[in-house]
Amino acid sequence: MNFQINKMAGATLGSLLAVMGLGIFSDVLYAPEPMTKPGYALPAAEAASAAVAKAAAPVVPFAQLLAKADPKAGQADAKPCATCHNFDKGGAAKIGPPLYGVVGRPKGSVAGFNYSDGMKGKGGNWTFDDLDKFIADPKSYVSGTKMTFAGEKDDAKRADIVDYLRTLSDSPEPLPK
Ligand code: HEC
Question: pTM of the prediction?
Answer without folding.
Answer: 0.74
